[in-house]
Design a protein that fits this description.
- By secondary structure, the chain is mainly α.
- 59% of the residues lie in helices and 0% in strands.
- Helix 1 runs antiparallel to helix 2 (43-55).
- The longest helix is centred in the middle third of the chain and has 18 residues, at 21-38.
- The N and C termini lie far apart (45 Å).
Length: 87
């Protein structure tokens, strides 16, 4: 049986309130933008992944994943402005 390390995401000054809904959503967006730019193995991407996995209900992330696959996801996952900054 695999060992799992449970860890609560650290404090993020952008989300100081107890309700972590926005923190969940922003971490989901940040993860997918990060992966698009740097790949899944980039350490900061893993932090975003762990954060949204910890904060977001599974139903939400499954729905968002389905929406991304269908091209109907309402969030902005555009990375063009970041790609031009990297060059």
């Amino acid at each position: 049986m695999a060992d799992y390390k449970l860890q609560t995401p650290g404090f993020d000054a952008r989300f100081p309130q107890q309700n972590q809904t926005k923190h969940c959503y922003q971490s989901y967006l940040d993860y997918h933008k990060c992966v698009a730019l740097k790949g899944e193995e980039f350490a900061p991407c893993k932090v975003f992944f762990q954060t949204f996995q910890s904060l977001c209900p599974l139903d939400w992330t499954e729905q968002w994943d389905e929406q991304r696959e269908k091209g109907t996801f309402p969030g902005n996952l555009s990375v063009e402005k970041f790609q031009s900054e990297e060059k």
